[in-house]
Amino acid sequence: MRDYKELIKSFTQEDYKSGRVNLHIHTSYSDGLGNFKDFVKVSSKFKAIAISDHNTIQGYLENEISENVIPAVEFDVWCGYVFMHLLAYGIDVKSDELKPFLAKSKKETEMDIVRIFAKRDLKKLIKAIHNAGGIAVIAHPACCWAFSLDGFFKKLKSFGLDGAEVYYPYARHRGIIKFHTVEAVKKFARKYDFIVTGGTDLHSEKLSK
C-alpha cells in the first residue's frame, strides 16, 4: 500500500498555493456539484488531489481512481463544545474500522442542519482512521470556535491528530465566521508538529488549478 503520509508530508507551500495539490474537494456524492469520475479524469493535471466528500466514501467504492488521487473523507464531529471537520487521508476505503462512522443517508452527506448533530466520538474516529491506514487532519481550523487555539490543538494532539489544514482560502462564509487568524493556525501547527495540508474546499462543477 502506498505511503500516503510521507507523500502528503512531501508537499510544499508552493504546491498548495499554485494549485498543483488540492486536498479538499467535494463532489455530488455529498454537497458538491462536480462529478467524481470527471475529477479523476483530470487528476493527471495535478501533482495530487483528494476527493473528500462529507461522511461518505461511496465515490471510491463505485469508481476507479488514478495514482494522483489520495483516498479521503471529511467527517463532521464534535470535540467537546467545538464543532469541527476532520479530514481523513490515505485511508483503506474498504476498512471495516470506518464503517460505523460513515453516513447512513444522503442527508448526512449534504445538509448542514443534519450534519451538525453528528454523534461521532472523536477519539474513536481518529483511532479508526489510523487503523484504516490513514492520517487525521483538522479542516479549516481558523473557523473552529475554540476559546484558545493553542489549547484546542494540544487536546487534539493528545487524541492522536496528525495534521492541520493550513493552506485554505477562507472564502465566502468561511471568511466571515473565522475565529482565529491563519498565522495563529500556522504557529500552533508548528508547535505541535502537525503535518501541514491545504485545499480549496471545492464544491463547483469544474476542477482547475
Describe this structure in words.
It is a single chain. With 209 residues, the chain is α/β, with parallel strands linked by helices. It has a domain at 4-139: Metal-dependent hydrolases (TIM Barrel). It has ten helices and seven strands. Strand 1, helix 3 (36-42) and strand 2 (48-51) form a beta-alpha-beta unit. The two termini are 28 Å apart. The model has no long low-confidence stretch (mean pLDDT 95).
Number of strands: 7
- CATH level 3 topology of the domain at 4-139: TIM Barrel
- Strand proportion: 15-25%
CATH class of the domain at 4-139: Alpha Beta
| The named CATH superfamily of the domain at 4-139 | Metal-dependent hydrolases
Computed Rg: 16 Å
Please report the distance between the alpha carbons of the first and last residues. 28 Å
Shape-level CATH architecture of the domain at 4-139 = Alpha-Beta Barrel
Average of pLDDT: 95
Order of helices and strands: HHEHEHEEHHHEHEHHE
Number of helices: 10
Question: What is the share of helical residues?
Answer: 25-40%
What does the main sheet amount to?
A: 5 strands, mixed
- Low-pLDDT stretches are none
By helix and strand content, what is the structural category?
alpha/beta
Shape type: globular
Report strand order across the widest sheet. Answer: 3-4-5-6-7
